[in-house]
Amino acid sequence: MADPSSYRPKPGQIPDSPGVYKFRDERRRVIYVGKAKNLRQRLANYFQDLAALHPRTRTMVTTAASVEWTVVSTEVEALQLEYSWIKEFDPRFNVKYRDDKSYPYLAVTLDEEFPRVQVMRGAKKKGVRYFGPYGHAWAIRETVDLMLRVFPVRTCSAGVFRNAARTGRPCLLGYIGKCSAPCVGRVTPEEHRELADDFCDFMAGRTGTYIRRLEKDMMAAAEEMEYERAARLRDDVEALKRAMEKSAVVLADATDADLIAVAEDELEAAVQIFHVRGGRVRGQRGWVTDKVENVDTSGLVEHALQQLYGEEAGDAVPKEVLVPALPEDPDAVSQWLAGRRGSQVSLRIPQRGDKKDLMATVQRNAQQALGLHKTKRASDLTTRSRALEEVAEALGLDTAPLRIECFDISHLQGDDVVASMVVFEDGLARKSEYRRFQIKGFEGQDDVRSMHEVIGRRFKRYLQDKERTGEWEEAPAPTGPAPDTTSDPDTAPDPDAEPREDDGRPKRFAYPPQLVVVDGGQPQVAAAKRALDELGIDDIAVCGLAKRLEEVWLPDDDDPVVLPRSSEGLYLLQRVRDEAHRFAITYQRAKRAKRIRSSPLDAVVGLGETRKQALIKHFGSVKKLKQATIDEICEVPGIGSRTAESVAVALASAAPATPAVNTATGEIIEEDDGGSTT
User: Fold this and answer.
1) Which among 481, 479, 478, 485 has a CA at the least distance from the CA of 432?
2) In what order do the strands lie in the sheet with 128-131?
3) What region holds the UvrC family homology region profile domain (predicted)?
């Protein structure tokens, strides 16, 4: 580990102009490349107190042994040079998107005498028109098969083409009308190129004019009683429409744009790109990367733009690029994109309308891609075993924690304080044993007291069940899967409910974990440990995961345990913590929404949601229902006299409504005449 002060250049040596800098290790290998508008200011940020640096930045500067820089004239030149050096040196501390596959394109080789339509992967070539990328090669082949009956362009390889020309016999596609057979001279090179141009125009989105022309020719053929030709044209139109349906219209103004969305956590990020041409989604691609440097969403977007357009042909850069966050220097990036395209490029964040809605779809795809990536990683048995072993080693446990319980507190500015407990067994979520809590011991916001209360209540029930059923060794856990108490984990039972006797035996509150994880740092860990000590439990390990720097805190330790960023153990603890947070905030939001939607009719015993809606529909509002007589209420189907009396009493005794306030925004939530809130 090098001391950054040993190679820190003097401030006067560093120019204050735009440029690109490289950090090298002791073996002169480039480990990080960055750019800056002002090199002096940027490099000064790396040579401050190590404790103030982000852990990833701290690791980089202590690994480096020297720094050097190159001055350029503009920010655009800095962007170009940074990308070139990242491609050349492949620095270990730079974000690098690893594409999970080679995406296929629909390509038309316009540089050949007889252009060919085919599937292409890899680097793009000059003189070739590309469409896509597509998710699967079979999707391209289906589209091409539909369009060949209208645009019978050559699809065969050079060898097949030469062989057909030598023998004077076309291939099968030539016999069935899906190739114009230029190999045997059925069409001239000019006629075949015109077919290829029409094919490209249609794929580029200019579809309406061509289909209308075919329909006009079809009607004319029918009027002239050329029914076979009319039928063939009809089939051509249907084939083109089916090809168009494979890429639905998403933007009505025939926009050419790329939409980029980012989903990220502390360690990884997923990028999804939708390619929209002519208002239609022509292709989709995605990448996943480790966040090896301290980078925010703006930085991830800039890296994605470099990856996407750094080596693309100019026509691959659209007129409009929509992103979730603008890069640090949007003007320089826009100029760079314009240089790649050869004309102006709009780089912006969609604010409203169809483009914002489509961006939300791309964002959901990015979230799903990141979740799928994590699921694949978590489902591997070897990886899970290594993660549990790393956790045990880092925390000093005697055995791997096969059962982990994680607790999280959630509230909205001190209101609706709730907690969650999630369970992971053998590194996998066991949703049937999730539990949720309402904080009952006090009111207001105090995460430490809340954590103490929740841990105490959970393990008090554990001790009660242990006393009732005997020692745990005498009542081992079931070997099969636990019964799923609910299809939706967000409706899991409250642990404070009385145990049921459905099968003649009390339902025990799960089983003791080997490790308790709390979302938080030293205060939350100390509160959890204190709750266990008060109950006399000393055989369950406790730790906390602080979100800011992903540090693992142990009871009575002044310094955290810092697991390596690439550690599978850290990844497991993170996943457990994030799941507890998701479960807690889902319950908190549902609880708050239920409180806001409360109605005076809720106090009527035995009045279900269906009959409530029937009453509101009949009278139009709770206000009008309150003015109705018992006989008028009885006129509603399903409402008897006793229920009508209960409704009248409940409405008469209901206190006047006070306006609810959205604690997040301070806005008053007004109640409408229907008894619901808006």
Assistant:
1) 485
2) 117-120, 105-109, 128-131
3) 259-532
